[in-house]
Design a protein that fits this description.
This protein is α+β, with helices and mostly antiparallel strands. It has 6 helices and 6 strands. Strands 1-3-4-5-6 form a 5-stranded mixed β-barrel.
Length: 223
């Protein structure tokens, strides 16, 4: 079972409708942790509501095509991830500092005509995310670490390799996917990967393309 999913074992443990927080370039994955600094009034109200209830919100990206509804709000991607609020603090200037732990991905079944200032969707959860992913044993861990290390070195970035070495495959793949500095389309591809093995392969492929692109740019600058 994914870390953080002790509360959730089947579909009946999850709400059918959840508030959603559209965030471009954001990636939350099952078992992953995401800090958020919330200041917009409608999302402050959203947190007030869910803290008194199931403590779950949906993190989802706006449409990658930039589609906009008649009211000016962005259309949403079809797939997001449920997060449970595991820590909460209120600042002196009215902001909320929260930490979300990923529970499971979901597909948007329907956006509701909500009376609340925040948006709400009826969801179809990916129930397989509540169970252990058997493909974690098939991950090419050395290849994943080698590729990501090369990316960090090429971009003068650092990582806590001691923590990385201790992480199991599930935590490693999801943590690297969440921290990877890629764009909305790449983040969505990582989110929608069929299983952990596919996500790891997708992350390696995206990273190798980024390295090749950086090398081409460097070569062009020398000409």
């Amino acid at each position: 079972m994914q870390a953080g999913n002790a509360h959730y074992r089947r579909d009946k443990d999850l709400p059918q409708t959840v508030p959603v927080f559209p965030l471009a370039g954001a990636l939350l994955l099952p078992g992953g942790r995401m800090p958020l600094n919330v200041f917009e009034p409608r999302y402050l109200q959203m947190l007030d509501d869910v803290l008194a209830d199931h403590r779950l919100i949906g993190i989802i990206q706006p449409s990658l095509e930039g589609a906009v509804r008649a009211d000016g709000e962005p259309e949403l991607c079809n797939v997001g991830c449920l997060g449970r609020i595991t820590s909460f603090a209120e600042t002196g200037d009215g902001r909320y500092l929260i930490s979300l732990q990923g529970v499971c991905r979901f597909r948007v079944a329907q956006e509701m005509a909500a009376k609340t200032p925040f948006r709400q969707c009826r969801i179809m959860p990916f129930l397989a995310d509540l169970q252990d992913d058997q493909s974690s044993n098939e991950i090419d861990r050395p290849s994943l670490l080698k590729t990501f290390r090369a990316y960090l070195q090429a971009n003068d970035l650092e990582a806590d390799w001691e923590s990385v070495s201790r992480a199991d495959n599930t935590m490693l793949v999801n943590a690297l996917s969440m921290m990877a500095p890629y764009g909305p389309a790449e983040k969505q591809a990582l989110l929608e990967a069929a299983d952990l093995k596919t996500r790891a392969e997708t992350l390696v492929a995206i990273t190798e393309m980024a390295l090749a692109r950086d090398a081409d740019d460097f070569g062009s600058s020398l000409q």
